[in-house]
Amino acid sequence: LDQVEQLDVELKAVVGEQMVSDVPIGAFLSGGLDSSLIVAYMNQHRDDPVSTYSIGFEKSSLGQDVIGSDVEYARNLKDHLNIDYNEIMLNSDSSTILNKVVYHMDEPIADPAAMTTYLVCKAAVKKSKVILSGVGADEIFGGYPRYLANSISNYYRYIPTPFKRLLEEIILSSKV
Q: How far apart, in Å, are the Cα atoms of 121 and each of 14, 17, 130, 160?
């Protein structure tokens, strides 16, 4: 098998192993490749629809966001996969739960996803006691922009010194 086929075989097997449970199993579905693939593999191990939980932001809350919301992709998947799609939409009033989130944390965590995780888990527990997610796939497969920057920086050493200085001057003088 080539590497892509081997990865497919391994991922199917791992998801299949996680499907052995005596309680209802669901999945977090962001609409990204990792969670979408997990849900698709989950479907191969069940006849009934997989309960999925997606969280999104109202457009009015995304004014300053650079990336935007993935919920559109998750919605798209509900039409292509056999799933019980559950969606939570956040707005600026969602910050009222901050005290509850802090209360439930064992230690301080500087992760803005803590609030969305709390809300999606609160919704998921109504139908599912075990949740599969694609958390960690970005670290394994280099899906974050910082990994791209690191890769690009490897080529920086090959730029001749005069061009490096010019580039640095331009960057430092810009009002970024």
A: 22, 22, 10, 52
First to last CA, the chain: 48
Handedness of CA 17, 20, 21, 27 (dihedral sign): positive
Full-model pTM: 0.72
Alpha-carbon dihedral angle through residues 24, 117, 40, 42, given to the nearest 10 degrees:
-20
pLDDT value of position 41: 94
Residues 67 and 61: beta-carbon distance below 8 Å:
no
Q: What pLDDT does 90 receive?
A: 77
HSE toward the beta carbon, residue 135, CA cutoff 13 A: 7
pLDDT in the model for residue 152: 76
Query: What is the spatial distance between Cα 133 and Cα 36, in angstroms, rounded to a whole number?
Result: 9
Please state at what angle helix 33-43 crosses helix 3-18, rounded to 10 degrees: 60
Closest CA to 128 of 16, 31, 50, 59: 50
What's phi and psi for 20, nearest 5 deg?
-80, 110
The letter for the amino acid at 151 is S
Q: Report, as ranges of residue numbers, the positions in the chain whose pLDDT lies below 70.
A: 59-69, 91-95, 139, 142-147, 175-176
Alpha-carbon distance of 45 to 39, in angstroms, equals: 10
